[in-house]
Amino acid sequence: MTRLDPPMAATPDDLFALLDRLGIAHRTVSHPPLFTVEESRTLRGQIPGGHTKNLFLKDKKGALYLVTALEDAVIELKSLHRRLGAAGRFSFGSADLLRETLGVEPGAVTPFAAMNDGAGQVTVVLDAALMAQATLNAHPLRNTMTTSIARDDLIKFLAATGHPPRVVALGEAATAAADTLQTPGPDNI
User: Model pTM?
Assistant: First the structure.
């Protein structure tokens, strides 16, 4: 049996074209490569809105999750699997698995990468505290840019890619936000 090469990953221009087709307003700022949340803090003041951190996780049975939260959120990985109904504790997905499923490099993990997961292998989870922000900021598939969109447009984008997100309170501050936030879909709490 011959293994087929995975389809080519989308580029930022592909992402912007999809956002345009969906009628989603977006603004992108170019900057030097940023690999960590700490490095990206240098952009505060230049780019308003909630800035994201993203965790690419795998449970004990191999189910994949992309968890997106505010950059300063404290996410307790030891108990996160219970909150999300995963099969056993999470580990971080490898760089090779990240490239294979989401088509991005480490340091450029983003909810926008859902467009590269045509097989629907990844469950997208958005932290409720993040979704309390009117504007959200994430890398557009590369870590040399930051793209800003409205929070409702992120949900619209994810649904259009076949990844309707679960919105879950992941921490104490998030729990308070979830009490006042209404989100679509039966999976959301």
Answer: 0.83
